[in-house]
Amino acid sequence: MSVDNGCASAGARKTLSVDEARQIILSTVTPLSGWEKVAIRAALGRILAADVIAPCNVPAHDNSAMDGYAVRAEDLSADGEVSLQVVGTAFAGRGFSGIVGAGQAVRIMTGGVMPMGADTIVVQEIVRTEGSTVVVPAGIRKGQNVRRAGEDLAEGAVAIPRGKLMGPAELGLAASLGLAEVCVTRRLRVAFFSTGDELATIGRPLAPGEVYDSNRYTLHGALTRLGCELVDMGVIPDRPDELEAAFRNAAACSDVVLTTGGVSVGEADFIRELMARLGEVSFWKIDIKPGRPMAFGKIGNTWMFGLPGNPVAVMVTYYQFVMDALLRVAGQDPLPQRPLMQAVCTSAIRKLSGRKEFLRGRLYLEDGQWQVRSASAQGSGILRSMSEANCFIVLDEHRGDVSPGETVQVQLFDGLV
Ligand code: AMP
Ligand code: MG
Fold first, then answer.
1. 300 phi/psi in degrees, rounded to 5
2. Of 383, 395, 390, the residue nearest 413 (C-alpha)
3. pLDDT tens track for 14-40
4. Are the beta carbons of 45 and 93 closer than 8 angstroms?
5. What residues does ligand 1 touch, defined as CB less than 6 Å away?
6. Which residue spans within 91-180 are E strands per DSSP?
Protein backbone atom coordinates (compact mmCIF):
# COMPACT_ATOMS: atom_id res chain seq x y z
CA MET A 1 0.00 0.00 0.00
CA SER A 2 1.14 3.51 -0.60
CA VAL A 3 -0.92 6.23 0.94
CA ASP A 4 1.42 8.76 -0.55
CA ASN A 5 0.31 8.13 -4.10
CA GLY A 6 -0.96 11.33 -5.56
CA CYS A 7 0.85 13.36 -2.94
CA ALA A 8 4.28 11.81 -3.23
CA SER A 9 5.67 14.44 -0.96
CA ALA A 10 2.67 15.87 0.76
CA GLY A 11 5.06 17.67 3.04
CA ALA A 12 6.97 19.28 0.21
CA ARG A 13 3.95 19.71 -2.03
CA LYS A 14 1.59 22.44 -1.05
CA THR A 15 -1.67 20.76 -0.07
CA LEU A 16 -4.25 18.25 -1.28
CA SER A 17 -7.66 19.29 -2.51
CA VAL A 18 -10.68 17.73 -0.79
CA ASP A 19 -11.41 15.64 -3.88
CA GLU A 20 -7.81 14.43 -4.14
CA ALA A 21 -7.72 13.42 -0.48
CA ARG A 22 -11.04 11.59 -0.79
CA GLN A 23 -9.94 9.88 -3.95
CA ILE A 24 -6.65 8.69 -2.44
CA ILE A 25 -8.40 7.36 0.66
CA LEU A 26 -11.19 5.60 -1.21
CA SER A 27 -8.85 4.05 -3.74
CA THR A 28 -6.48 2.87 -1.02
CA VAL A 29 -8.79 1.18 1.49
CA THR A 30 -10.02 -2.31 0.68
CA PRO A 31 -12.96 -4.36 1.93
CA LEU A 32 -12.54 -6.73 4.83
CA SER A 33 -13.01 -10.40 4.39
CA GLY A 34 -15.16 -12.18 6.91
CA TRP A 35 -18.88 -12.69 7.00
CA GLU A 36 -21.60 -14.26 9.11
CA LYS A 37 -25.10 -15.57 8.62
CA VAL A 38 -27.77 -13.62 10.47
CA ALA A 39 -31.54 -13.82 10.80
CA ILE A 40 -33.39 -11.42 8.51
CA ARG A 41 -34.33 -8.91 11.22
CA ALA A 42 -30.74 -8.76 12.45
CA ALA A 43 -29.58 -7.92 8.93
CA LEU A 44 -31.00 -4.39 9.11
CA GLY A 45 -28.14 -1.92 8.58
CA ARG A 46 -25.68 -4.67 7.67
CA ILE A 47 -24.01 -5.17 4.29
CA LEU A 48 -24.68 -8.23 2.16
CA ALA A 49 -21.61 -10.44 1.77
CA ALA A 50 -23.04 -12.57 -1.05
CA ASP A 51 -25.73 -12.12 -3.69
CA VAL A 52 -29.17 -13.16 -2.55
CA ILE A 53 -30.44 -15.47 -5.29
CA ALA A 54 -34.17 -15.99 -5.68
CA PRO A 55 -34.85 -19.64 -4.76
CA CYS A 56 -38.32 -19.44 -6.32
CA ASN A 57 -40.42 -17.27 -8.58
CA VAL A 58 -42.03 -14.17 -7.10
CA PRO A 59 -44.95 -14.31 -7.39
CA ALA A 60 -44.89 -18.07 -7.23
CA HIS A 61 -48.00 -18.48 -9.45
CA ASP A 62 -49.88 -16.50 -12.06
CA ASN A 63 -52.48 -14.59 -10.06
CA SER A 64 -55.03 -11.85 -10.29
CA ALA A 65 -54.02 -8.21 -9.88
CA MET A 66 -57.62 -7.15 -9.25
CA ASP A 67 -60.92 -8.27 -7.80
CA GLY A 68 -63.04 -9.51 -10.71
CA TYR A 69 -63.61 -12.54 -12.92
CA ALA A 70 -61.13 -14.97 -14.42
CA VAL A 71 -62.17 -15.72 -18.00
CA ARG A 72 -60.93 -17.25 -21.27
CA ALA A 73 -60.08 -14.52 -23.79
CA GLU A 74 -61.28 -16.73 -26.64
CA ASP A 75 -64.84 -16.60 -25.17
CA LEU A 76 -64.94 -12.80 -25.36
CA SER A 77 -66.09 -10.67 -28.22
CA ALA A 78 -64.43 -7.62 -29.75
CA ASP A 79 -67.69 -5.83 -30.42
CA GLY A 80 -70.39 -7.08 -28.10
CA GLU A 81 -71.23 -8.25 -24.59
CA VAL A 82 -70.79 -11.90 -23.63
CA SER A 83 -72.60 -13.81 -20.87
CA LEU A 84 -70.51 -16.34 -18.96
CA GLN A 85 -71.52 -18.92 -16.36
CA VAL A 86 -69.84 -18.30 -12.96
CA VAL A 87 -68.69 -21.74 -11.79
CA GLY A 88 -66.74 -20.94 -8.62
CA THR A 89 -64.59 -18.54 -6.63
CA ALA A 90 -60.82 -18.15 -6.19
CA PHE A 91 -59.63 -16.33 -3.08
CA ALA A 92 -56.08 -15.26 -2.28
CA GLY A 93 -54.67 -18.36 -0.61
CA ARG A 94 -57.60 -20.60 -1.56
CA GLY A 95 -57.84 -21.22 -5.26
CA PHE A 96 -60.46 -22.70 -7.56
CA SER A 97 -59.60 -26.32 -8.11
CA GLY A 98 -61.59 -26.93 -11.29
CA ILE A 99 -60.91 -25.99 -14.86
CA VAL A 100 -62.60 -23.03 -16.52
CA GLY A 101 -64.32 -24.39 -19.60
CA ALA A 102 -65.81 -22.70 -22.65
CA GLY A 103 -68.42 -20.09 -21.69
CA GLN A 104 -67.41 -20.17 -18.02
CA ALA A 105 -65.88 -17.68 -15.55
CA VAL A 106 -64.60 -17.81 -11.96
CA ARG A 107 -65.10 -15.04 -9.42
CA ILE A 108 -61.57 -14.10 -8.27
CA MET A 109 -60.06 -11.85 -5.59
CA THR A 110 -56.78 -9.92 -5.79
CA GLY A 111 -53.92 -12.37 -5.30
CA GLY A 112 -56.09 -15.37 -6.14
CA VAL A 113 -54.23 -17.99 -8.19
CA MET A 114 -55.34 -18.02 -11.86
CA PRO A 115 -57.69 -20.99 -12.30
CA MET A 116 -56.66 -23.51 -14.95
CA GLY A 117 -58.11 -22.65 -18.32
CA ALA A 118 -58.49 -18.92 -17.62
CA ASP A 119 -56.02 -16.40 -19.02
CA THR A 120 -57.58 -12.97 -18.42
CA ILE A 121 -59.06 -11.00 -15.51
CA VAL A 122 -62.05 -8.74 -16.05
CA VAL A 123 -62.33 -6.21 -13.23
CA GLN A 124 -65.56 -6.35 -11.28
CA GLU A 125 -66.34 -2.64 -11.84
CA ILE A 126 -67.10 -3.17 -15.56
CA VAL A 127 -69.28 -6.29 -15.44
CA ARG A 128 -72.95 -6.91 -14.69
CA THR A 129 -74.13 -9.98 -12.85
CA GLU A 130 -77.43 -11.69 -13.51
CA GLY A 131 -77.89 -14.60 -11.11
CA SER A 132 -75.04 -17.00 -11.73
CA THR A 133 -74.17 -15.28 -14.97
CA VAL A 134 -71.68 -12.48 -15.49
CA VAL A 135 -72.00 -10.16 -18.47
CA VAL A 136 -68.62 -9.00 -19.79
CA PRO A 137 -68.36 -5.98 -22.08
CA ALA A 138 -66.49 -5.88 -25.38
CA GLY A 139 -62.87 -4.87 -25.81
CA ILE A 140 -61.07 -6.87 -23.08
CA ARG A 141 -57.42 -7.60 -23.88
CA LYS A 142 -56.10 -11.14 -23.43
CA GLY A 143 -53.93 -11.43 -20.29
CA GLN A 144 -55.26 -8.22 -18.78
CA ASN A 145 -54.79 -7.82 -14.98
CA VAL A 146 -52.86 -11.06 -14.64
CA ARG A 147 -49.65 -10.98 -12.59
CA ARG A 148 -47.31 -13.55 -14.06
CA ALA A 149 -45.30 -16.01 -11.98
CA GLY A 150 -41.73 -14.68 -11.68
CA GLU A 151 -42.79 -11.22 -12.84
CA ASP A 152 -41.16 -9.54 -9.80
CA LEU A 153 -38.25 -11.96 -9.66
CA ALA A 154 -37.49 -15.06 -11.63
CA GLU A 155 -36.10 -18.12 -9.86
CA GLY A 156 -32.29 -18.01 -10.00
CA ALA A 157 -32.06 -14.24 -10.54
CA VAL A 158 -30.00 -12.00 -8.25
CA ALA A 159 -32.57 -10.51 -5.93
CA ILE A 160 -30.17 -8.38 -3.87
CA PRO A 161 -26.54 -7.91 -4.95
CA ARG A 162 -23.63 -8.30 -2.56
CA GLY A 163 -22.42 -5.00 -1.17
CA LYS A 164 -25.94 -3.71 -0.66
CA LEU A 165 -26.83 -2.09 2.64
CA MET A 166 -29.83 -3.97 4.02
CA GLY A 167 -32.71 -1.53 4.58
CA PRO A 168 -36.42 -2.13 5.15
CA ALA A 169 -37.03 -2.94 1.47
CA GLU A 170 -34.26 -5.56 1.45
CA LEU A 171 -35.56 -7.17 4.64
CA GLY A 172 -38.98 -7.48 3.04
CA LEU A 173 -37.54 -8.66 -0.26
CA ALA A 174 -35.50 -11.40 1.41
CA ALA A 175 -38.60 -12.44 3.37
CA SER A 176 -40.67 -12.49 0.17
CA LEU A 177 -38.30 -15.19 -1.05
CA GLY A 178 -38.89 -17.22 2.08
CA LEU A 179 -35.34 -16.70 3.31
CA ALA A 180 -34.85 -16.83 7.07
CA GLU A 181 -31.16 -15.82 7.01
CA VAL A 182 -28.72 -13.87 4.84
CA CYS A 183 -24.92 -13.60 4.73
CA VAL A 184 -23.64 -10.21 5.85
CA THR A 185 -20.15 -8.84 6.19
CA ARG A 186 -18.47 -8.85 9.54
CA ARG A 187 -19.09 -5.74 11.60
CA LEU A 188 -16.27 -3.25 11.36
CA ARG A 189 -14.29 -2.86 14.59
CA VAL A 190 -13.26 0.73 15.11
CA ALA A 191 -10.97 1.78 17.97
CA PHE A 192 -10.81 5.46 18.80
CA PHE A 193 -9.27 7.81 21.32
CA SER A 194 -8.90 11.50 21.98
CA THR A 195 -5.47 13.02 22.48
CA GLY A 196 -4.65 16.11 24.49
CA ASP A 197 -3.25 17.03 27.91
CA GLU A 198 -6.03 19.58 28.32
CA LEU A 199 -8.88 17.11 28.00
CA ALA A 200 -11.08 16.41 30.98
CA THR A 201 -13.44 13.51 31.43
CA ILE A 202 -17.13 14.37 31.74
CA GLY A 203 -18.85 14.12 35.11
CA ARG A 204 -16.31 16.07 37.14
CA PRO A 205 -15.48 19.77 37.48
CA LEU A 206 -13.00 21.34 35.06
CA ALA A 207 -9.58 22.38 36.34
CA PRO A 208 -8.17 25.65 34.95
CA GLY A 209 -7.19 25.30 31.30
CA GLU A 210 -9.10 22.07 30.78
CA VAL A 211 -11.85 21.36 28.24
CA TYR A 212 -14.24 18.47 28.32
CA ASP A 213 -13.50 15.78 25.79
CA SER A 214 -16.46 15.93 23.43
CA ASN A 215 -14.95 14.30 20.34
CA ARG A 216 -15.25 10.78 21.68
CA TYR A 217 -18.96 11.26 22.15
CA THR A 218 -19.49 12.70 18.69
CA LEU A 219 -17.59 9.79 17.21
CA HIS A 220 -19.45 7.33 19.42
CA GLY A 221 -22.68 8.62 17.87
CA ALA A 222 -21.47 8.64 14.29
CA LEU A 223 -19.79 5.22 14.44
CA THR A 224 -22.70 3.61 16.24
CA ARG A 225 -25.08 4.85 13.58
CA LEU A 226 -22.81 3.41 10.94
CA GLY A 227 -23.14 0.01 12.58
CA CYS A 228 -19.55 -0.33 13.79
CA GLU A 229 -18.35 -2.27 16.80
CA LEU A 230 -16.67 0.29 19.00
CA VAL A 231 -13.53 0.14 21.10
CA ASP A 232 -13.50 3.40 23.06
CA MET A 233 -9.98 3.86 24.41
CA GLY A 234 -10.58 7.09 26.29
CA VAL A 235 -8.30 10.10 26.48
CA ILE A 236 -4.56 9.76 25.90
CA PRO A 237 -2.26 12.56 27.06
CA ASP A 238 0.27 14.12 24.67
CA ARG A 239 3.08 11.82 25.78
CA PRO A 240 4.96 9.74 23.24
CA ASP A 241 5.12 6.59 25.37
CA GLU A 242 1.41 6.61 26.17
CA LEU A 243 0.48 7.46 22.59
CA GLU A 244 2.66 4.68 21.27
CA ALA A 245 1.03 2.16 23.61
CA ALA A 246 -2.42 3.43 22.64
CA PHE A 247 -1.71 3.15 18.91
CA ARG A 248 -0.27 -0.34 19.31
CA ASN A 249 -3.22 -1.55 21.40
CA ALA A 250 -5.76 0.06 19.09
CA ALA A 251 -4.21 -1.39 15.96
CA ALA A 252 -3.97 -4.84 17.52
CA CYS A 253 -7.68 -5.06 18.28
CA SER A 254 -9.40 -3.24 15.42
CA ASP A 255 -9.85 -2.82 11.68
CA VAL A 256 -9.68 0.96 11.82
CA VAL A 257 -8.22 3.40 14.35
CA LEU A 258 -9.55 6.94 14.62
CA THR A 259 -7.87 9.57 16.74
CA THR A 260 -8.60 13.23 17.28
CA GLY A 261 -6.14 16.00 18.07
CA GLY A 262 -2.41 16.18 17.93
CA VAL A 263 -2.02 16.42 14.16
CA SER A 264 -1.54 20.17 13.93
CA VAL A 265 1.82 21.78 13.28
CA GLY A 266 4.22 21.28 16.16
CA GLU A 267 2.24 18.57 17.92
CA ALA A 268 2.24 16.47 14.80
CA ASP A 269 5.97 16.25 14.81
CA PHE A 270 6.38 13.59 17.42
CA ILE A 271 3.28 11.71 16.32
CA ARG A 272 4.78 11.70 12.85
CA GLU A 273 7.96 10.19 14.22
CA LEU A 274 5.93 7.63 16.10
CA MET A 275 3.94 6.76 13.00
CA ALA A 276 7.07 6.30 10.96
CA ARG A 277 8.07 3.61 13.45
CA LEU A 278 4.66 2.00 13.90
CA GLY A 279 3.28 2.02 10.39
CA GLU A 280 2.93 3.83 7.12
CA VAL A 281 1.06 7.03 7.71
CA SER A 282 1.04 10.30 5.78
CA PHE A 283 0.35 13.68 7.28
CA TRP A 284 -1.69 15.80 4.96
CA LYS A 285 -2.56 19.42 4.66
CA ILE A 286 -5.90 19.54 2.92
CA ASP A 287 -7.51 22.59 1.29
CA ILE A 288 -10.49 22.32 3.59
CA LYS A 289 -12.00 24.51 6.23
CA PRO A 290 -12.47 23.52 8.93
CA GLY A 291 -10.07 20.60 9.28
CA ARG A 292 -6.90 21.30 7.37
CA PRO A 293 -4.52 18.75 8.95
CA MET A 294 -5.19 15.04 8.83
CA ALA A 295 -3.23 11.83 8.95
CA PHE A 296 -4.08 8.71 6.98
CA GLY A 297 -2.38 5.39 6.63
CA LYS A 298 -1.93 1.93 7.99
CA ILE A 299 -0.52 0.38 11.13
CA GLY A 300 -0.09 -3.32 10.40
CA ASN A 301 -3.39 -4.35 8.86
CA THR A 302 -5.33 -1.56 10.50
CA TRP A 303 -6.35 1.62 8.71
CA MET A 304 -5.65 4.77 10.63
CA PHE A 305 -7.23 8.22 10.44
CA GLY A 306 -5.80 10.98 12.58
CA LEU A 307 -8.41 13.71 12.63
CA PRO A 308 -7.85 17.25 13.87
CA GLY A 309 -8.82 18.16 17.42
CA ASN A 310 -11.35 20.92 16.97
CA PRO A 311 -14.80 19.43 17.45
CA VAL A 312 -16.37 20.81 14.26
CA ALA A 313 -13.28 19.90 12.23
CA VAL A 314 -13.63 16.36 13.56
CA MET A 315 -17.17 16.12 12.24
CA VAL A 316 -16.39 17.71 8.89
CA THR A 317 -13.38 15.49 8.23
CA TYR A 318 -15.23 12.43 9.48
CA TYR A 319 -18.13 13.01 7.09
CA GLN A 320 -16.04 14.08 4.11
CA PHE A 321 -13.21 11.54 4.37
CA VAL A 322 -13.81 8.82 6.92
CA MET A 323 -17.44 7.72 6.72
CA ASP A 324 -17.39 6.48 3.13
CA ALA A 325 -13.99 4.88 3.70
CA LEU A 326 -15.48 2.93 6.61
CA LEU A 327 -18.37 1.85 4.41
CA ARG A 328 -15.95 0.67 1.78
CA VAL A 329 -13.91 -1.31 4.33
CA ALA A 330 -17.16 -2.77 5.64
CA GLY A 331 -17.94 -3.99 2.10
CA GLN A 332 -20.60 -1.56 0.90
CA ASP A 333 -20.59 -1.41 -2.90
CA PRO A 334 -21.36 0.85 -4.61
CA LEU A 335 -20.85 3.66 -2.11
CA PRO A 336 -23.88 5.88 -1.67
CA GLN A 337 -24.11 8.95 -3.89
CA ARG A 338 -24.47 12.08 -1.82
CA PRO A 339 -26.13 14.71 -3.97
CA LEU A 340 -25.61 18.40 -3.33
CA MET A 341 -28.70 20.54 -3.40
CA GLN A 342 -28.97 24.12 -4.65
CA ALA A 343 -30.37 26.75 -2.34
CA VAL A 344 -30.53 30.52 -2.21
CA CYS A 345 -28.19 31.78 0.48
CA THR A 346 -29.72 34.51 2.61
CA SER A 347 -26.54 35.29 4.58
CA ALA A 348 -23.45 37.21 3.55
CA ILE A 349 -20.44 34.91 3.86
CA ARG A 350 -16.81 35.96 3.88
CA LYS A 351 -14.72 33.42 2.01
CA LEU A 352 -11.10 33.45 0.91
CA SER A 353 -10.28 31.53 -2.20
CA GLY A 354 -8.01 28.49 -1.76
CA ARG A 355 -9.91 26.18 0.58
CA LYS A 356 -13.15 24.32 0.19
CA GLU A 357 -15.36 25.41 3.06
CA PHE A 358 -18.04 23.44 4.83
CA LEU A 359 -20.06 26.01 6.71
CA ARG A 360 -22.85 25.03 8.99
CA GLY A 361 -26.18 26.07 7.49
CA ARG A 362 -29.86 25.94 8.17
CA LEU A 363 -31.92 24.99 5.14
CA TYR A 364 -35.57 26.02 5.14
CA LEU A 365 -38.47 26.35 2.73
CA GLU A 366 -39.94 29.80 2.30
CA ASP A 367 -42.36 30.99 -0.37
CA GLY A 368 -41.88 27.70 -2.19
CA GLN A 369 -38.12 28.18 -2.43
CA TRP A 370 -35.31 26.39 -0.58
CA GLN A 371 -33.17 28.92 1.21
CA VAL A 372 -30.19 28.53 3.49
CA ARG A 373 -28.67 30.76 6.11
CA SER A 374 -25.38 30.25 7.75
CA ALA A 375 -25.32 29.31 11.44
CA SER A 376 -24.48 32.22 13.70
CA ALA A 377 -21.03 31.13 14.86
CA GLN A 378 -18.73 29.29 12.47
CA GLY A 379 -15.61 28.71 14.61
CA SER A 380 -14.19 25.23 14.17
CA GLY A 381 -14.46 24.66 17.91
CA ILE A 382 -18.10 25.73 18.17
CA LEU A 383 -20.00 22.48 18.18
CA ARG A 384 -23.30 24.26 18.77
CA SER A 385 -23.19 25.28 15.10
CA MET A 386 -23.42 21.61 14.08
CA SER A 387 -26.40 21.12 16.33
CA GLU A 388 -28.19 24.24 15.04
CA ALA A 389 -27.48 23.34 11.44
CA ASN A 390 -29.21 20.81 9.22
CA CYS A 391 -26.75 21.02 6.35
CA PHE A 392 -23.28 22.01 5.25
CA ILE A 393 -23.03 24.97 2.90
CA VAL A 394 -20.33 23.75 0.53
CA LEU A 395 -18.22 26.50 -1.03
CA ASP A 396 -15.64 25.42 -3.60
CA GLU A 397 -11.94 26.14 -3.26
CA HIS A 398 -11.92 28.81 -5.93
CA ARG A 399 -14.86 30.92 -4.98
CA GLY A 400 -14.81 34.04 -2.83
CA ASP A 401 -17.42 35.86 -0.75
CA VAL A 402 -21.10 34.99 -1.01
CA SER A 403 -23.64 37.81 -1.20
CA PRO A 404 -27.20 37.32 0.01
CA GLY A 405 -29.38 36.05 -2.85
CA GLU A 406 -26.64 33.96 -4.47
CA THR A 407 -27.27 30.29 -5.09
CA VAL A 408 -25.00 27.94 -3.17
CA GLN A 409 -24.65 24.19 -2.83
CA VAL A 410 -25.65 22.44 0.36
CA GLN A 411 -25.10 18.92 1.63
CA LEU A 412 -27.93 17.73 3.85
CA PHE A 413 -27.11 16.18 7.19
CA ASP A 414 -29.93 13.71 6.53
CA GLY A 415 -28.13 10.88 4.84
CA LEU A 416 -24.86 11.59 6.65
CA VAL A 417 -25.50 8.95 9.25
P1 AMP B 1 -5.29 19.94 18.52
O2 AMP B 1 -5.63 19.51 17.14
O3 AMP B 1 -4.90 18.81 19.40
O4 AMP B 1 -4.31 21.05 18.49
O5 AMP B 1 -6.62 20.53 19.12
C6 AMP B 1 -7.22 21.66 18.56
C7 AMP B 1 -8.28 22.24 19.48
O8 AMP B 1 -9.31 21.28 19.67
C9 AMP B 1 -7.77 22.57 20.89
O10 AMP B 1 -8.39 23.77 21.29
C11 AMP B 1 -8.25 21.42 21.71
O12 AMP B 1 -8.46 21.77 23.05
C13 AMP B 1 -9.54 21.04 21.04
N14 AMP B 1 -9.77 19.63 21.26
C15 AMP B 1 -8.90 18.64 20.94
N16 AMP B 1 -9.41 17.45 21.26
C17 AMP B 1 -10.63 17.69 21.79
C18 AMP B 1 -11.66 16.85 22.31
N19 AMP B 1 -11.50 15.52 22.36
N20 AMP B 1 -12.80 17.42 22.76
C21 AMP B 1 -12.94 18.76 22.70
N22 AMP B 1 -12.02 19.60 22.22
C23 AMP B 1 -10.86 19.08 21.78
MG1 MG C 1 -3.94 18.64 21.14
1. 60, -125
2. 390
3. 799 999 999 999 999 999 999 999 999
4. no
5. 194, 196, 198-199, 211, 213-215, 260-262, 264, 267, 308-311, 381
6. 104-108, 120-123, 128-130, 133-136, 146-147, 158-160
